[in-house]
Amino acid sequence: SDTCVHAPTVRVRPLTCTETRRGDQRVVHSLGDGTVHVSAARHDVTFGFSAVFDAGASQEAVFEGSGMRQLVELAIDGFSCTVFAFGQTGSGKTYTLMGPLAQSETRPAAPGLLGLMQRSFACLLEQSQSCGSGLALSVSYLEIYNEQVRDLLSPGPPCALPLRWSKTRGFYVENQLNVDFESLEAIADLLLQGSQRRRTSAHTLNRHSSRSHALLTIHVRSRASITPTTRVPQPGACPSKQGTLCFVDLAGSERVKETGSSGELSVEANNINRSLLALGHCISLLAKPQGKRMHIPYRDSKLTRLLARSLGGSGITLMVACISPSSRCLSETLSTLHYASRARRVTTRP
């Protein structure tokens, strides 16, 4: 039977110094037990989710409380697992996934500030070491910028890659680079290398606004025990399994008049909003009862094509909705919370 696996969690970031100086009111409050309350002029509404993390929650608390550890274990068991971070620009999506933006190979982040990605990598490699040489790990890292898919790990300037379709693989990116890794240092370096090539820009709401959607996918292959002489599985050996763990850092939704964007920034914002609208449309249709569903328009954007299997196929998905508590961001915050509520009703068969 269908299982509800799009388990949305909510993270409320602290008010920024700019918001505090400006006198913004805090209109979002965590009530505990997975509920969040929005209270402002003409708005008084409560939402329920699997977990809500308020401004004081640590990165470790988000990792443990969101079910991320279980998702890593499911990927090892051969399931296709996906983690979304979505919300308004400047709401803390990239910080939740990766930690501080200022980190580099020469200036690593403090361990307590590391995000869901690095903590998942550590958990995955711990499990790999406990399995001996039973796991083979590789990673790919892509961005969707202005509706072009670009490889963030390939050497040289990022160039557009074709998106293909096949009956066996679904939508896939042709010629993307997959890099094997065996240590935490190696995958951390690949993450930093790719994220530094990702498109970012500054505007009124965010000095480091992501201008692309980024998808980092860990491919996990568990190998059956092989005898060195016969090269066949030993008696009683488990068959090999192939799982994936995909982290999706969505570019933030934004209103051009709020960000002051113009020229190239405005074009980027329109492409971001268009693909997020397509994603929201797919989620709305998937949330309808099975008998009332229409055709799901995955082909409306590159983003929805690449996420088709995660959204409505056989995947297991964790959605992290990042929101600002500021009264100035009320409209976008409500939009994000309604978005997450719809996602909660989507069911798939993992």
TrEMBL record:
Tell me which UniProt keywords the record has, alphabetically: ATP-binding, Cytoplasm, Cytoskeleton, Microtubule, Motor protein, Nucleotide-binding
Q: Kinesin motor domain: from which residue to which, for each copy?
A: 5-346
Q: Which Gene3D superfamilies match?
A: Kinesin motor domain
A Gene Ontology biological process noted in the UniProt record is: mitotic spindle organization
The compartments listed are:
Cytoplasm, Cytoskeleton
Q: Give a GO cellular-component term.
A: microtubule associated complex
Residues recorded as binding ATP, renumbered to this chain, are 87-94
Q: Which Gene Ontology MF annotations are present?
A: ATP binding; microtubule binding; microtubule motor activity
**Primary residence:** cytoplasm
Establish whether keyword Cytoplasm is in the entry: yes
Its family?
A: Belongs to the TRAFAC class myosin-kinesin ATPase superfamily. Kinesin family.
What name appears for this protein in its UniProt entry? Kinesin-like protein
Per the UniProt record, the source organism is Steatornis caripensis
